[in-house]
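Task: sequence design from structure.
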């Protein structure tokens, strides 16, 4: 039975945080392109940390987050407050709400006659998939007496929050499986948009391999450092994070740390590297697609989103044991393979912005027809 609704439908977008510009914010940018009149609700908003175009959007956020002490650097430490904060966002006036969520946004409260579609980047990593990895990264006291109790509560809240969603959309088959495992829900897959318009292959390839990543434990950049310590080949590591100093102390002189790099420098590094090294497990992984858009192969740990974006032996190579020895073996094999740049670039076309927009329009339209009727689709997506 379809719900009777006013015409046209009123739409809102909800996003976890707006205090950085990463993969989730790129997706939000294109969601806003599809639904330009929809206001965006969020928990934290730091306009000076975002592209200038965001300042022209209708962004609304929970006001008391501005009073968090040292909020820019310590916002993750307030995690026990966010479940109640997200529930204070008043969405009673909207007929369609699309949450863009890797943590809290799916937990919004909506009326029974509101359609809530969640574009899910992954179920909460710290509570589910990476629970033990994150637990052991803290001090013994925290990991033994605080972390288990805090995340016991968050697992319960996260599971209840998932039940508030009417329909899930996942960003990869990997995330689809996690949603089925942890939430017992089905989802439709829509791959994220990868902005590759300014990336193109070149002929002059450098003498270095590249790691482009945040330097945090679950990215497993330590494996790459140990592997290249053994190989003696040049490795450039671009990125910052809590492990920056520890990794630099671990590395030999053949490994160069560039720290934060501009978008322009990132593209240059990708274009000229021998290959991108990708030792972590990702939900999707935008950087491997960007590397392939530059015509460069990717040597990746063979699990997670990488298995959906890389064609083994054609656009890159997998290693299947998360050890330096396994990575060394893969690099030695990769050096004997003559990768075809055209084939590598062609593989990225399925992750284009255009494909994302078209797929989102199709999926959202299907749900709108199911819940409200076809006339609302024509109104929302009118040119």
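Answer:
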């Amino acid at each position: 039975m379809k719900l009777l609704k006013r015409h046209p439908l009123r739409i809102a977008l909800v996003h976890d945080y707006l205090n950085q510009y990463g993969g989730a914010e790129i997706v939000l940018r294109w969601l806003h392109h599809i639904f330009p009149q929809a206001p965006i609700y969020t928990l934290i908003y730091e306009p000076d940390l975002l592209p200038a175009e965001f300042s022209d959007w209708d962004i609304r956020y929970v006001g008391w987050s501005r009073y968090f002490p040292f909020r820019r650097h310590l916002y993750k430490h307030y995690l026990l407050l966010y479940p109640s904060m997200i529930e204070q966002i008043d969405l009673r006036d909207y007929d369609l709400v699309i949450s863009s969520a890797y943590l809290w946004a799916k937990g919004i409260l909506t009326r029974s006659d509101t359609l809530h579609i969640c574009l899910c980047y992954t179920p909460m990593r710290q509570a589910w998939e990476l629970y033990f990895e994150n637990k052991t990264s803290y001090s013994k006291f925290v990991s033994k007496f605080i972390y288990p109790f805090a995340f016991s509560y968050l697992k319960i809240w996260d599971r209840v929050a998932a039940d508030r969603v009417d329909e899930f959309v996942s960003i990869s088959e990997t995330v689809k499986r996690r949603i089925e495992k942890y939430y017992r829900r089905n989802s439709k897959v829509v791959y994220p948009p990868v902005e590759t318009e300014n990336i193109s292959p070149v002929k002059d390839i450098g003498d270095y391999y590249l790691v482009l990543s945040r330097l945090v434990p679950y990215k497993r950049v330590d494996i790459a450092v140990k592997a290249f310590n053994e190989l003696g080949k040049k490795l450039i590591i671009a990125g910052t994070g809590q492990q920056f100093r520890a990794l630099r102390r671990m590395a030999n002189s053949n490994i160069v740390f560039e720290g934060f790099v501009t978008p322009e420098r990132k593209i240059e590094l990708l274009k000229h590297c021998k290959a991108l090294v990708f030792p972590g497990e990702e939900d999707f992984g935008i950087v491997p697609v960007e590397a392939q858009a530059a015509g460069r192969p990717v040597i990746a740990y063979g699990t997670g989103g990488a298995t959906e974006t890389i064609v083994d032996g054609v656009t890159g190579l997998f290693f299947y044991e998360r050890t330096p020895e396994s990575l060394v073996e893969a690099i030695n094999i990769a050096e004997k393979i003559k990768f075809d740049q055209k084939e590598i670039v062609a593989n990225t076309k399925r992750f284009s912005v255009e494909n994302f927009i078209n797929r989102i329009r199709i999926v959202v339209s299907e749900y709108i027809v199911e819940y409200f009727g076809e006339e609302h689709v024509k109104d929302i997506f009118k040119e």
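The longest helix spans residues 140-162.
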